[in-house]
Specification:
652 residues; alpha/beta; TIM Barrel; Rossmann fold; FAD/NAD(P)-binding domain; 3 domains; 8-stranded parallel barrel; 5-stranded parallel beta sheet; 19% strand
Length: 652
């Protein structure tokens, strides 16, 4: 029967089957790429323990594959291998020591994978390839289905032996079970296909087998997709129907939710900065209205207010926050303790948590340089020192924070009137406003740690010497580098000039994308919003090519279409020449050698910068430790600046 939704406060405990959670904030399953030879590592343990220590009531680990036929990526936990058991026990002992419940997610990815690692064909309800992986699977029969059910039960039993408080069955973004549930991927006519009940048969068989394997004393959860966003995919009505079937078994203790699939609509699973907070809460809201089981809601939670509102409004019983806990392992504890101003917020940039994992690298975080490196503590300084940081961009601020955390006395000199560097400017572009959270949190952390920040301050070599520092961190950033083809034309400006308000292009504008990231696309949107007729050109095959890694490509293409932004690919600017009423631009197609010309009112360039490193060179040979960080070394992205600032200060 549907539950009586009255809402709850984040600090309230919740009974979840046989266990009680100490609060309503959980750390859901997500990939880390920490596994080695299919086993739990010390890196896993340190990562999860940091979030348990930080206050999360429950942690659901990344997926444990239940059958040797499933290995969609290299660093997968092989739950079917008995050798994982010692690692299980080390992990669960470490996490439960902090009064946090820990569950293992069980999964088989089906056609959303590759046979590259196993040399075996993929399994699926039907022999239809996934649109991303494009590998034709085999339609599994009764024998394989029996192996699959037994595999889930076997791994669940091993998880129980390994000290887990329970297991969660993934039936959401990357699962053979979701493929069986969805009509578009399950055209079967046997007992596992047809109407909703028959398509749910495999899931129900597995739920029954897993409950029998773990007994009544452990938690059993199921994660459901409520909106795949694909033709023939699952919708909210399907999710509600399956939720009722699961509740009717009497064996499931909670339901978790998600939206999107980890192929065509991955941008819904791990929504980027341009996606509104709470975008997926309609799923737990609908499921919770239909069943009496506790429901976990997700939806890009980054602030205590968002957590509190979802719970007190009764939209969900538990809040799942992945990236918020990656950015700040203490997110739950700070939320519960009224210390929201101390949270280092997730900004939804997806650079290291999604982009790195998508490249097969271990998970990280652009705003938290310790994410993924929790097993490496900051060393205490041998002798506390006077540290002077020149530049209050992300690299300089992070260097100041880390140095102060280690006990040094830190002063920061910033030439501008406000800290933040280029991030402050970039945050003024459409859909990029949350960037400011990265530097605002660092500035606040500096203040709490007693770091003195002097804005509008001269940072000449003489000034540095006058401070008589023991160590100097040069974080002076980078400046725009004018392309040779631009000549002296005043109609050619840099994206930074536009964002800073030093240039106001109007009319017909050509934006040149040499960087393949947000610089060109965000300024193109800004100018289109101001009424300009905008074209973006690039030497790449697509404009903003790196937006695919951070899952911003879908949104950019849709918004560019809606705003009438044209896109031209495979070209470089060969020359510009001012005319009476504009500038004529010659474009060279570097693949065909053909040239074309267009006349515009202004050209805006998103191209490579050059380091502001004069101070660095001038201070060489002085009687103090000298370190250069961030764009002052060479221009890169936010994640590089912050991690380099941390490493520099850790070495002092």
């Amino acid at each position: 029967m549907p539950r009586d939704v009255t809402g709850a406060e984040p600090h309230e405990p919740l009974r979840l089957g046989p266990v009680t959670l100490r609060n309503r904030i959980v750390f859901p399953a997500h990939l880390t790429n920490f596994a080695v030879d299919g086993e739990i590592t010390d890196r896993h343990i340190a990562y999860y323990v940091a979030r348990a220590r930080g206050g999360a009531a429950m942690i659901v680990t990344e997926e444990h594959t239940v059958h040797p036929s499933d290995r969609p990526y290299e660093k997968l936990i092989r739950g079917w291998d008995p050798d994982v058991l010692p690692g299980y026990r080390r992990l669960t002992d470490a996490v439960r020591a902090h009064d946090t419940r820990i569950l293992a997610q069980l999964n088989h990815n089906g056609a959303q994978g590759t046979g590259m690692y196993t040399g075996r064909p993929l399994w699926a309800p039907a022999p239809d390839p996934d649109p991303l992986f494009r590998e034709v699977p085999v339609a599994i029969g009764e024998r394989e289905i029996g192996e699959l059910v037994a595999g889930y039960a076997d791994v669940a039993r091993r998880c129980a032996d390994g000290g887990f408080d329970g297991v969660e069955i993934q039936c959401s973004q990357a699962s053979i079970l979701r493929a069986f549930l969805a009509p578009g991927t399950n055209p079967r006519t046997d007992g596992y296909g047809g109407d909703r009940d028959r398509r749910a048969r495999l899931l129900l068989d597995i739920v029954t087998a897993v409950r029998a394997a773990i007994g009544p004393g452990l938690v059993l959860g199921v994660r459901l997709s409520g909106h795949d966003g694909t033709p023939g995919g699952l919708g909210i009505d399907d999710a509600v129907h399956v939720a009722r079937l699961l509740e009717a078994t009497g064996t499931v203790d909670y339901l978790s939710t998600s939206v999107g699939v980890a192929t065509e609509t991955l941008h819904l699973v791990e929504a980027p900065m341009s996606t509104p907070h709470g975008y997926s809460l309609f799923v737990p809201d609908a499921i919770g209205a239909a069943v009496d089981l506790p429901v976990v809601g997700v939806g890009r939670f980054t602030t205590p207010d968002q957590v509190r509102d979802a719970l007190t409004d009764g939209v969900c019983d538990l809040v799942g926050a992945v990236r918020a806990h990656i950015a700040d392992p203490g997110f739950a504890g700070k939320t519960l303790g009224g210390r929201g101003d101390e949270i280092r917020p997730c900004i939804g940039c997806n650079q290291d948590c999604i982009g790195r994992v998508g490249l097969g690298r271990p998970i990280g975080c652009a705003v938290n340089p310790h994410a993924g490196y929790e097993e490496i503590p900051l060393p205490a300084p041998a002798v506390p020192a006077r540290v002077l940081v020149v530049g209050a961009g992300p690299a300089g601020l992070q260097a100041a924070v880390t140095a102060a955390q280690r006990g040094h006395t830190v002063t920061v000199l910033e030439r501008e009137t406000l800290p933040g560097g280029q991030i402050r400017s970039a945050a003024t572009a459409p859909h990029r406003g949350e960037l400011i959270g990265a530097v605002a949190a660092l500035e606040a952390e500096c203040r709490r740690l007693g770091v003195e920040i002097r804005t509008g301050a001269d940072a000449a070599a003489a000034t540095v010497r006058a401070h008589r520092p023991d160590a100097v961190v040069v974080a002076t950033g980078a400046r725009p580098r004018r392309p040779d083809w631009a000549g002296t034309s005043r109609r050619v400006v840099d994206v930074r000039d536009v964002l800073d308000g030093h240039a106001e292009p109007a009319g017909r504008v050509l934006v040149v994308d040499d960087l393949g990231f947000h610089q060109a696309t965000s300024v193109a949107e800004l100018l289109a919003d101001r009424g300009c007729v905008v074209t973006v050109c690039t030497s790449g095959m697509i404009v903003g090519q790196d937006l695919g890694l951070t899952l911003e490509m879908n949104g950019w293409i849709r918004r560019a279409h809606d705003k009438g932004i044209d896109q031209v690919t495979d070209v470089v600017v060969a020359a510009v020449a001012e005319t009476g009423d504009g500038v004529e631009v010659t474009l060279l197609n570097h693949l065909t050698g053909e040239t074309s010309c267009c006349t515009v009112d202004h050209v805006v360039v998103a191209t490579h910068q050059e380091p502001v490193d004069e101070l660095w060179h001038e201070l060489h040979g002085e009687n103090f430790r000298l370190i250069c960080v961030g764009d002052a070394v060479t221009p890169r992205r936010l994640d590089s600046a912050i991690i380099e600032g941390m490493r520099a200060a850790a070495a002092l």
